[in-house]
Design a protein that fits this description.
Elements (H helix, E strand, L loop, with lengths): L5 H8 L2 H8 L4 H27 L4 H27 L14 H16 L2 H32 L4 H8 L3 H20 L2 H26 L8
Length: 220
C-alpha cells in the first residue's frame, strides 16, 4: 500500500501548505482554517475508528482502534481547541463549515468502516496515521528551527506533537494490525484494502491542499 501511493505521497510533500507550515511562513488565518477543518475531521474520524473497533476480530485490535477513537475525540481535539482559543490565531465569529475535501473524506471513511469487511476498513483509516507520521517526522526538523527562533510559535508546537514518540508508536501498532488483517483476508479483500488505502491517501492530499486552494461550495 505504501509503494502504491508513492506518487501521491511525493505530491503531498510538495504541497505549499506543508512547506510553509514547516518553515513557519503560512499565514495565520490559513492555519486557523486548517485547525478548524481538522477539528471537524477528527469528530468524523473518531466515529469511523469506533466502527472499525466494533468489527475488529479480537479484543486487542478492538481495544487499539477504540483507544485511538478516544484519543482523536479528546486528546487531539483538545490540542486543536487550545490553539483556536489561545489568542495566537486571528479571531473568527463564523461557524466553521466542512470543506468539500473534509466532508468527502470523513463520509468515505464512515461508509467503509460501516459497510466493508474489517480488513478494508482498517486499511482505509490507516493513511491518517501513517502519512501524518511520515510528514510530521520531516516537518519536525524544520519546526525545531522555527521553535528556536520563537518558542511559542503555534505551527512548530503543532507539528512536533505528531513527531512525538507516543504518536509514532501508535502508528507502528496500527500498521501491525492492518498487516495482520491482510494476512487473514481473502485475495479480493486485499485488493480492496489497497484501493481503500489509495482513496484515503488521495483525500489526505486534497484535505491539505484545499486549505490553501479553497474549493467553494455552490451558493445556497
Amino acid at each position: 500500500m505504501w509503494d502504491r501511493t508513492k506518487v501521491l505521497r511525493d505530491a503531498i510533500d510538495e504541497l505549499e501548505f506543508l512547506r510553509r507550515l514547516g518553515d513557519g511562513t503560512l499565514p495565520l488565518d490559513v492555519f486557523r482554517t486548517y485547525i478548524e477543518q481538522d477539528l471537524l475531521y477528527l469528530t468524523g474520524y473518531a466515529k469511523a475508528l469506533s466502527l472499525v473497533a466494533a468489527h475488529a476480530p479480537d479484543p486487542d485490535a478492538a481495544g487499539f482502534w477504540a483507544g485511538s477513537a478516544a484519543t482523536a475525540a479528546t486528546v487531539e481535539a483538545t490540542l486543536h481547541q487550545n490553539l483556536l482559543t489561545s489568542g495566537q490565531l486571528p479571531e473568527s465569529d463564523a461557524e466553521p463549515q466542512h470543506s468539500q475535501a473534509c466532508l468527502g473524506y470523513i463520509s468515505y471513511l464512515t461508509a467503509v468502516a460501516a459497510t466493508d469487511p474489517y480488513p478494508v476498513a482498517a486499511a482505509a483509516v490507516l493513511p491518517c496515521f501513517w502519512i501524518y507520521a511520515d510528514v510530521g517526522r520531516r516537518l519536525a526538523r524544520s519546526a525545531r528551527e522555527v521553535l528556536s527562533a520563537d518558542p511559542s510559535h503555534p505551527y512548530a508546537q503543532w507539528v512536533t506533537t505528531y513527531d512525538a514518540e507516543e504518536f509514532q508508536t501508535a502508528v507502528a501498532t496500527a500498521r501491525e494490525f492492518v498487516d495482520a488483517a491482510a494476512d487473514a483476508a481473502t485475495d479480493s479483500q486485499r485488493e480492496a484494502m489497497v484501493e481503500a488505502f489509495v482513496i484515503a491517501s488521495r483525500y489526505e492530499l486534497m484535505f491539505w491542499d484545499t486549505v490553501v486552494n479553497k474549493q467553494e461550495w455552490p451558493a445556497s
